[in-house]
Write a structure and sequence with these properties.
Blueprint lengths: L6 H8 L7 H13 L6 E6 L9 E7 L7 E7 L6 H15 L8 E7 L3 H6 L26 H10 L11 H4 L1 E4 L2 E4 L2 E2 H8 L19 H13 L5 E10 L6 E5 L8 H7 L10 E2 L16 H6 L5 E10 L5 H20 L4 H15 L4 H23 L2
Parallel strand pairs: 3-4, 3-8, 8-11, 9-10
Antiparallel strand pairs: 1-2, 2-4, 5-6, 6-7, 9-11
Length: 390
């Protein structure tokens, strides 16, 4: 793969890759798919909604044209409000990367906006209040998990009243004790490690993973069962925004060994050589965490004994990675959840709280947009150069 352009050119064009809204993004994706040459299978999964019409996950499968060796799956918008960056990265991929991919041994599956409801309405979750990245389970086992500590902490700290302040109740009880921040004796680390993995019983609590698969979850798993078997290597790249240093691309691996085949990972990702574009961040790193039911675990769970699977989350930092930024992000998320279930004291407060939650997913900043597209370009160039190799 060859390099592209100068940074000033990238800075000028990057903002144009970000869509104005869900409808524009979807229309652009469909047009890109229609213009592709060679073997292709376009499709769409309809997502029923009580609030909106014509929501769907649009996708295209481009099978290897000769001997299947590597399948690359690129997904975006699992958290709906994060889909703007995912859409921009896909647009750049169609325009600059895909024409250079040697498709003889490489297959691709590209999915636009896995959570179209959240994309359209600037919500992180689905219309059913499900965090879609806690909802993927080929055998259905995660829906039987019971996260007792998460349920206890949510019951203790989450307000059940309309949002009446831009500070969530949890933040109001925050204290510094002996250099450690606590919430009525509960440390921030304990709070995050207990609640972030997900829970499957209470939609009004944080990180609700659902009691069964969402329609697009079931459809995605079925499609992966269909297309994975011929390929020796399977690489999943799931695009997100939020965690990490502002404008920096963090590559996150799943905590389960089945999610990341070590040989395939070592072949494709060279952190030192690629540090200009990304950094590898393990789930146990400060401010990060592992989760139940994430999309990227699907590949390892479905892979046969002859296959190597690797699922990677591409996470572009938004608010920043310092302590204050982490607390700010937590506060914005809690206000979004509280408002979704209990409403707001007035319309102005609702507008402000929703704007804060959306900014956590999509900062209104051209430099941030440029950094997202530039990092994605650098990563994609290297991934496909190495994926095609023996």
């Amino acid at each position: 793969m060859r390099g592209f352009g100068r940074l000033d050119v990238i800075m000028t064009s990057a903002a144009a890759d970000f869509p104005a809204n869900y409808a524009e993004s979807r229309k652009r994706f469909i047009a890109r798919v229609a213009g592709l040459a060679g073997p292709k299978e376009p499709g769409r999964w309809e997502v029923p909604s009580r609030r909106s019409e014509d929501l769907s996950v649009d996708w295209v499968f481009l099978p290897a044209t000769q001997e299947p060796r590597t399948l690359v799956v690129i997904t975006s918008g699992v958290h709906g409000s994060e889909a703007y960056a995912g859409s921009a990265c896909l647009e750049m991929f169609f325009r600059e990367i895909l024409p250079l991919v040697d498709r003889r041994g490489v297959g691709l599956f590209l999915a636009h906006a896995m959570n179209p409801y959240g994309f359209k309405h600037h919500s992180r979750c689905t219309e059913s209040h499900v965090n879609l990245n806690r909802n993927f389970s080929p055998d259905g086992s995660i829906y039987r998990l019971r996260n007792e500590e998460s349920l206890r902490l949510c019951e203790r700290f989450l307000s059940k009243e309309p949002v009446s302040s831009l500070r969530a109740r949890l933040i109001e009880v925050m204290k510094a004790e002996n250099g450690t921040v606590t919430f009525e004796g509960v440390t921030l680390d304990r709070l995050i490690k207990a609640t972030a993995p997900g829970q499957f019983e209470r939609p009004e609590y944080v990180e609700y993973g659902g009691r069964g698969p969402e329609p697009q979850t079931a459809a995605f798993i079925a499609k992966m069962r269909e297309i994975l078997p011929p390929y020796r290597d399977v690489l999943g790249l799931d695009l997100h925004t939020g965690l990490g240093h502002r404008g920096r691309l963090h590559l996150l691996t799943g905590g389960a060994e089945i999610a990341t085949h070590p040989e395939l990972f070592a072949k494709i990702f060279h952190a030192e050589a690629d540090r200009e574009f990304y950094e590898l961040t393990p789930p146990e790193a400060d401010g990060f965490y592992d989760v139940h039911g994430c999309l990227n675990n699907v590949f390892g769970e479905l892979a046969g004994p002859h296959q190597r699977a690797c699922g990677i989350t591409m996470e572009y930092g938004t608010l920043g990675h310092g302590f204050e930024a982490q607390i700010d992000g937590l506060n914005r998320s809690l206000l979004e959840i509280q408002g979704a279930h209990h409403g707001f004291a007035d319309q102005e407060l609702e507008r402000q709280a929703r704007a804060l939650a959306f900014e956590r997913s999509y900062p209104d900043d051209d430099e941030w947009r440029a950094s997202v597209v530039r990092a994605a370009r650098g990563l994609f160039e290297r991934v496909f150069a190495r994926a095609v190799g023996a």
